[in-house]
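Please check this:
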Amino acid sequence: MKILLVEDDAETARYIVKGLAEAGHACDHAGDGDTGLEMAGTGIYDVAIVDRMLPGLGGLDLVSALRGRGDETPVLILSALGAVDDRVTGLRAGGDDYLAKPYAFSELLARVETLARRGGGNNAETRLEVGDLVLDRLSRKVTREGRAILLQPREFRLLECLMRHAGQVVTRTMLLEQVWDYNFDPQTNIIDVHVSRLRGKIDRDFDQPLLHTVRGAGYVLRESEAN
C-alpha cells in the first residue's frame, strides 16, 4: 500500500513512516500542506494521513481542496483537537476518518488499512494477478498455483510494484523510487539482489518463469518471455 503522510512535526513523521514501513507499506512524507496537496495530485496513493494543524495550507483546507478537484483518496485526519465538534468539522471537510492525539500506532494502522479496504482511493485494487501468481494487498498473502509464498516486507513491495506494471518494463530507478522511497545511484546492486531473492521464491519451484530481466532496461513480470 502506498501512503501519503502530511505532518509538520519531524519526530512524529519519523515514527509513523517507520511504523508503516515495518508493516510493509510505502510512505511518502510532506512537511507542509502545500507540498502535501502537490504530492497528492500525483494520484499514486491509496490513503493519505493528514495532520490538522499544518504550516501554510491547513489540513482541513488541504482535504477540502482534494475533494474540490474530485480526488477521492481516503483521508485520515490526525489532530490534538478531539472534541465531538472538532471531529464533525474534520469529517465535513471531506475526511474519511478522524483520529485524536495521543493515539496508539496500532490503531492508526488499523484505521489506515480499513480506509484502504473501502476502495475509495486511486489505487483501490486489492488483488493483483499475473498468471497463477496472486497477491492480496490487504491480507498481505501471496500464492502461486494455490501454494503460499512467504515474502519479507521489501520483497512484498517489490512484487506489488512489478505486478502493478505487469507486462511493462520497470526500470531500476522506478523501483528505487516506488519500493525504497529514496533516490540514489541506480547502478547499485541492491535491486539485483532483492530481485534475485524474489525470483527464487516465485519462480524456482514452478515450470513457467514470470520474472524476467530486460538487459540494460530493468525487469518485467509476465507469463511468457515472448511478446
